[in-house]
Amino acid sequence: MALIALAADKGSPGVTTAAVALAAVWPRRVLLAETDPAGGDLVYRSAAAHGGPLNPNTGMLSIAATARRGLVPDQLWDHVQPLSGGLEVLVGLGNSEQAAGLAGLWPTLGHAFASLADSPHAAADVIADCGRISGDTPAVELFPHASLVLLVSRTEPEALARVRDRAAALAGKLHGGSRVAGPGGPMVGVVLIADTGDAAKLASQVNDMLVHAQTGARVVGTLADDASGAEQLAGRRRGRLDKSLLIRTARKVTADLYQQYGAAWTASAHAAQPQQHQQPQQQHQPQQQGQYAPSAQQHRPGQQGSPQGDGRAGAGR
User: In sequence order, which residues have a C-beta less than 8 Å from that of residue 285 and are 6 or more positions away?
Assistant: First the structure.
C-alpha cells in the first residue's frame, strides 16, 4: 500500500475533487487526508456519518499535539471522521494561520501516512490533498514519504507549461538532482482534467511534452471535466453518481495505477514490516474492495449517503 499525494502548481484545477473522487473508488481501504496548509474544505461541505456536521477540531488540528510527542501510525485513526458515505477523512485545518501549529511536523506526518500501510491492525492507503504547492508550502515535506506524487492540471497552454516546469523541479528535488525516480523514491505523475472527447489525444500530447522536456514525470490518467458529476459527488445534485463521467474516469485512473504499481506498493509494504507483523492484511481490513465506491443505493446525491467534494469538477482546490 502507499501514500499518494495530490497537488497543483497554481490556480484551482480541482485537487480536492480529484482526491475525493479517487478515494471514493479506491480498491482498498483508504484514508483521505486534507493536508493543504491553507486549510481544508470538507468540514464546510460534508456531512458526518451521524448526519451532523464534521468536527473542525478533530483532524489535522488535533493531530498536531499528538505528533509533537511522537506519532504511531495507528494513532491517525483517533483523529479520523467518517463522512456520511463511509469515506474516512482526516479533516483539514480551518485556515492558513493554524498551519503554524504543524511547523516541523510535516515529515513526521508523512512517515506516519506512509507507515499506515504496514499497520498489522488497520492498514490503509492514504490519499493526501496537498492543495497548491507553489512557493514554500510545507506540504512538500510529505512528498519524500510518498509512493506517488500526482500533479493535477487543466489543459490550457499556460497550465500545461506550469505543470511541466513544476514536475521537472519537483522530480529533481525528490530524486537528488536526478529526474529519474530511484529505488524507494516517489514517482511524479500528472493527472489531467479534460473533456472526455479529447482526453486520450491530450494525454498523449502532454506525455510527449513531459518526456521531451526530460521532466521525469508522465501522464498517469485523465479525469473528466464533469461539473454535473462533481455536483453529485458533493451531494448537491441528484443522479446516478456511479454512472457519472467523473466517477467512471476515476475508476479507470485507480485501476491503471494499481495495475502498474499495486504489486510494487504491496511488496514494499511487506518488505518494510518486521517479521512478526507480516500477517494477512485481509483479517485487519473490514472494508473490502468497492466499499467506498459510489452507488445509487449508498450514495444517492442529495441524501446523507453522498460522499462530498468540490462543487464542480476542478472548482476550488
Answer: 28, 29, 122, 123, 124
Instruction: Look at the block and give the residue holding cell 467512471.
Output: 248
Whether the Cβ atoms of residue 117 and residue 2 lie closer than 8 Å to each other: yes
Instruction: Give the tens place of pLDDT for each residue, 68-108.
Output: 888 999 999 999 999 877 899 999 999 889 999 899 999 99
Neighbour count for residue 90 (Cβ, 10 Å): 26
> For residues 224 and 197, what is the distance between their CA atoms, to the nearest angstrom?
9
Tell me which H or E stretch contains 169.
helix 157-174
- How far apart CA 270 and CA 263 sit, in angstroms, is 11
Q: What is the pLDDT of residues 226-277, one digit of tens each?
A: 999 988 887 778 888 889 999 999 999 999 998 888 777 666 555 555 544 4
What's the length of the chain?
Answer: 317
